[in-house]
């Protein structure tokens, strides 16, 4: 694994190069960025997608174990897209045996307003790719009601979330009064969208509701619901998983200090900044290939 402990607002980077002896014999590099607490923001870059999926599975399994010890449950929000195939490693040994799946409560950070059997359903993707292969309790899987309009589905999903917060199945963030998920898992589109928060879309500005809706998503299908930024940024842990060269420019705009000034407040992935929680970016080498904060990786 090539690992960077790198944070936003990079001015100068103190680069430590260490000999790595992981299973794939890659080199470990750390970029320590002044001004950012190392324990709050991490950027991890992997030589191969296999390295990434294994380390990501370790990360999720460790958070699950630690949170179940502390709270008795693990409240996690999934996204759809390529993230689910990365999560596939969790269905394999040792994770399928060692993770306490019965303590997981699963919601979706975003969902397409289509039937649960529809090819575009994020629920269906997760069910086929993970949930049908591990002993998660069906009563702990909180998917949207697919018989409603997008507006109704968002309102009902927020109601479900409020009930889970009342019972502290999902914790509460004291400072924002928002749900405080133990872990929110995000992918990122080539345009920088996370969950279904797209650049320039009013849903990105929503600060009141926990769950909002779109009927004009720039990417099909048009009708979606999504967690709002305050909910994402209130989580204890947020992971953003990005692979492939096609997203390298978006990765650069989301992370590098040289990104356009306006990106700081309009580029969705860059706006994921947990207030008190921890953020980890998981990138493969291709996705990281335009990162200016780490050119030495690609010498
Ligand atoms: O539309 C969506 O896209 C993003 C990114 O998907 P990816 O396949 O490019 O990784 C995804 O995270 C989100 O859940 C989904 O609804």
Instruction: Tell me the radius of gyration.
Output: 18 Å
Task: List bound small molecules.
Answer: ligand LXAUTJHC
Query: What share of the residues does DSSP label as strand, in percent?
Result: 15-25%
CATH architectural designation? 3-Layer(aba) Sandwich
Helix content percent band:
10-25%
EC number: 3.1.1.31
InterPro entries: 6-phosphogluconolactonase_DevB, 6PGL, Glc/Gal-6P_isomerase, NagB/RpiA_transferase-like
GO molecular function, one term: 6-phosphogluconolactonase activity
GO cellular component, one term: cytoplasm
Describe the structure in your own words.
Hydrolysis of 6-phosphogluconolactone to 6-phosphogluconate. Residues 48-281 form the Glucosamine/galactosamine-6-phosphate isomerase domain. This protein has 299 residues and is an alpha/beta fold. The protein has one domain (2-298): Rossmann fold (3-Layer(aba) Sandwich). The protein contains eight helices and 14 strands. Strands 1-4-14-13-10-5-6 form a seven-stranded mixed sheet. It has a three-stranded antiparallel sheet with strand order 7-12-11. Strand 8 and strand 9 (179-180) form a beta hairpin. The longest helix is centred in the N-terminal third of the chain and has 23 residues, at 49-71. The ligand O=C1O[C@H](COP(=O)(O)O)[C@@H](O)[C@H](O)[C@H]1O binds at residues 79-83, 110, 122, 186-187, 189, 195-196, 219.
